[in-house]
């Protein structure tokens, strides 16, 4: 059972998983994700970060940060950019990524965000399949990976929060 807990972006367990995902990116792409991130961007009310635990061991992570029109030509007011979605290799194939994604979408909608956006790459077929199966639609590339041939960006409108 995956126990999802909100944590600060710079929590030791989050940092460990972020280091793992960066190593994964180096393996697949030859470099880390170089998107500038500030830990404060993932703090409420304009952000959120979580770690998923199995028997007390951190095995999954993900977060979102508020993004709005004017920050990038492809972004809109009310966007929540997903970052650092990751499941440790030994725990993949158990549906944990879907659970993390659902919680990120839920918390973004609860915070008033209306759309989730993300960037991934062609060398991550697992991520591409996950996002397609969860209703994410292709959008123009944004951020520092705009125009990169291996970059793929996706968006999904969030359901309005029911009181």
Automatic annotation (TrEMBL):
Residues 2-163 form the N-acetyltransferase domain. The keyword rRNA-binding does not apply. PROSITE patterns: GNAT. It comes from the Bacteria. Pfam families: Acetyltransf_1. GO terms for molecular function: acyltransferase activity, transferring groups other than amino-acyl groups. Keywords: Acyltransferase, Transferase. This is GNAT family N-acetyltransferase. It comes from Pseudonocardia petroleophila. The lineage of its organism: Bacteria, Bacillati, Actinomycetota, Actinomycetes, Pseudonocardiales.
């Amino acid at each position: 059972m995956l126990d999802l807990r909100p944590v600060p972006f710079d929590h030791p367990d989050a940092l460990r998983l972020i280091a793992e995902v960066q190593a994964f990116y180096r393996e697949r792409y030859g470099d880390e994700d170089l998107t500038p991130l500030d830990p404060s961007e993932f703090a409420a009310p304009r952000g959120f970060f979580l770690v998923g635990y199995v028997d007390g061991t951190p095995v999954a992570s993900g977060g979102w940060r508020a993004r709005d029109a004017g920050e990038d030509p492809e972004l809109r007011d009310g966007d929540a950019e997903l970052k650092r979605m990751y499941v440790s290799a030994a725990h993949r194939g158990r549906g944990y990524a879907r659970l993390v994604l659902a919680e990120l979408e839920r918390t973004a909608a609860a915070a008033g965000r209306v759309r989730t956006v993300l960037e991934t790459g062609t060398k991550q077929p697992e991520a591409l399949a996950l996002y397609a199966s969860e209703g994410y639609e292709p959008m123009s590339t944004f951020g520092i990976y705009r125009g990169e041939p291996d970059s793929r960006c996706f968006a999904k409108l969030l359901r309005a929060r029911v009181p």
